[in-house]
Design brief:
The complex is a heterodimer of chains A (about 575) and B (about 170). With about 575 residues, chain A is of the alpha/beta class. Chain A folds into three domains: about 160 residues, Thiamin diphosphate (ThDP)-binding fold, Pyr/PP domains (Rossmann fold), CATH 3.40.50.970; about 170 residues, TPP-binding domain (Rossmann fold, 3-Layer(aba) Sandwich), CATH 3.40.50; about 180 residues, Rossmann fold (3-Layer(aba) Sandwich). Helices cover about 35% and strands about 15% of the residues of chain A. Chain A contains 23 helices and 18 strands. In chain A, helix 1 packs parallel to helix 7. Chain B folds into two domains: about 70 residues, Alpha-Beta Plaits; about 70 residues, Alpha-Beta Plaits. Chain B contains four helices and nine strands, in the order βαββαββαββαββ. The longest helix of chain B has 12 residues. Classes of the chains: A alpha/beta (about 575), B alpha+beta (about 170). The complex binds thiamine diphosphate (TPP) and magnesium ion.
Chain lengths: ~575, ~170
Amino acid sequence: MTEASKFTGSHSLLRSLEHEGVEIIFGVPGGAILPAYDPLLDSPIRHVLARHEQGAGHMAEGYAQATGLVGVVMATSGPGATNLITPLQNALMDSTPIVAITGQVATSAIGSDAFQEAYTTGLAMHCTKHSYMATDADDIPNLIHEAFHLAATGRPGPVLVDIPKDVLNQVTTWREPHLHNLPGYKPTVSGHPMQIRAAIELIERAERPVLYVGGGVIKAGASDELLAFAEAANAPVVTTLMARGAFPDDHRLALGMPGMHGVYTATTAIQQSDVLVSVGARFDDRVTGDPDAFAPGAKIIHIDVDPAEIGKVRAAEIPIVGDARSVLVDLLSALRARRDPADHPARDEWFARIDSWKSRFPLSYEQPPDGPIKVQHFIERLYAITGGDAVIAAGVGQHQMWASQFWGFRTPRSWVNSGGLGTMGFAVPAAVGAKMARPDDLVIALDGDGCFQMTMQELITAATEDIPVKIVVFNNGGYGMVKQWQTLFYGGRLSAVDLGFTYPDYPKLAEAMGCVGLKVDHPSDIDPVIEKMLSVNDRPVVLEVVVDGEEMCFPMVPAGGSNDRIVMTREEL
Amino acid sequence: MQHTLTVIVEDKPGVLARISAMFSNRGFNIHSLAVGPTHQDGRSRITLVVDAPELEQLKKQLNKLVNVIKVQEMEPAEALEREVMIIRISAQPSTRGEVRDTASLFDARVIDISSSAMTFEVAGTPQHLKTFLEHLGPYGVIDLVKSGRIAMKRESELTPAPVSAGVGK
Ligand SMILES: Cc1ncc(C[n+]2csc(CCOP(=O)(O)OP(=O)(O)O)c2C)c(N)n1
Ligand SMILES: [Mg+2]
């Protein structure tokens, strides 16, 4: 056998990934992972060469969020692996299934401070669902199979497999993988029937129920079941930042996003509910505000596939461990066993209260006809022109909150976003990943100028690899969200939030990266420039939207405050 | 409040590190920890004594670790708990007899001796060791080492009669 024709750990790795159905790997090569990049040349798997491992990681997340499939990222040892820490933690916080493959220095060199050595599995211990170190090439198919199983099942999350260079080079044979080695991992799928009945009992008697829906519903693919149950129960639905799209915003029962920058009605309905049904949500502090003042009169039904979420923040009257879809199906059939789903309680008083909040406290902003452009207005125009048929990725900051508030989400997996970690720089690479996953769909990143500058080099990846994403950069001259906090809570003393409007020249920068560069700064030019952006389909487009640098994002519940005190305008603070 | 947990884990590299990483990340406090093999291949048992006001979340976080197979909390009444201590106590010729006599009430064995000190090995329940210290401590503790607590769930309902008379072993 010649060197090249030997079947090694690397071949086994590629074959294992193919066996898991992987079609795309996002990555950056380097010394320790070199052996794996050679058989990659002969594999049907497409490799997307990111310009930074963080970008590769967020691409894998965008790919996973837009489809539910496991995203795959590959990097070398040491700096390649450490550059992955942010996307791993991001995926952990948002329960996004990704598998990271990292090269490691040779087994004999581990622990010797060898060139490009980092204790990757140790680092990953804190930011993955689980991690592996391969010590024998014969184990690779099983490790990869387990890694995919762990990433995708139960509460999904990131899993890392670290493979030393000598293991990648070790001669081995292909072994069909089996799952036999996880005695400590048995996620509960079905909710307990007694709890299901008790939950229905409580929901049926409720006068002011609210379904508090989190990202778990999207992960479980339970949107249809949610819709059917919400209608049968006749209960209003709030969707957290991670759940936007899990329930159609144009439905009569939809109240929108609750929480710190949530819609008044959504936040207040939770506050005044008597029964709060949490489905795949985790009582995050951005939703609850002061947890002691959160939904004070509500009995809690908490449905989650991760038992550790139940009771973590708020004790539940009825805990239900199980997959959101399975539990919603069971809830609906338990409800059907009691009555005709169409014969639901009217709850007129509750809906009247909700309607009055809707009309008294809508989302609002003012767009002066001569400018400056307001982000909210631009998003509404973009929504109108696209008909909302797009996958939207967002950065982190004011623009993210406005995107969530003003885009009307109708389908799951149309919102790709960094919720738990709030990672600036997520939007560009995540949009690239989402576009790779759904080439026929319109993918638009709504990004901030600050966020854009953290990972914009991935547009070179997009241009080189023919991934025609559209990136809208809202240029408000700086870190709008941080500036808002300094304005409101630090007496207007602005510190390190000004990026200026002068540099970079976004259209020129876009052109230099192989994209089409566009710019708009007057409200009357918005529609034509959107049309222009949408007409380009052979290259990525960057559209700079120069917006008001003084605009603030409301409603707002100041951090740690009670959700009973929602600030609607600056004057109220 | 102190709780004793017995945790069955896969005997794999890094398991202990994962557990202690989780504890430090979540702000749980480990009072003592003992790890060893079980009678089953590939399984280790970790006995943890933790200081926590509330155990539910801690148990769930332990269970969430992929390599953790089983977590069991033991109420003091249903736990067979043991610790081992090696303790060096100042013992001048004038007090030596007294020290030895007191120690023998606790079934403590002398394992080293010098002109000014005696070193004992003593094993038993945490209470047993505590009482030992209360009685022998005043003579002057020069050095002390204690094992982590190990524990197993009692099968019998009844508390078996203490092996040594009257000192709460
Ligand atoms: C990696 C990272 N660093 C710092 C922050 C803190 N931070 C939150 S929002 C924000 C400003 C975002 O600026 P921009 O992208 O321009 O969005 P805007 O608020 O202006 O819409 C900063 C610095 C963060 N979330 N992530
Ligand atoms: Mg900005």
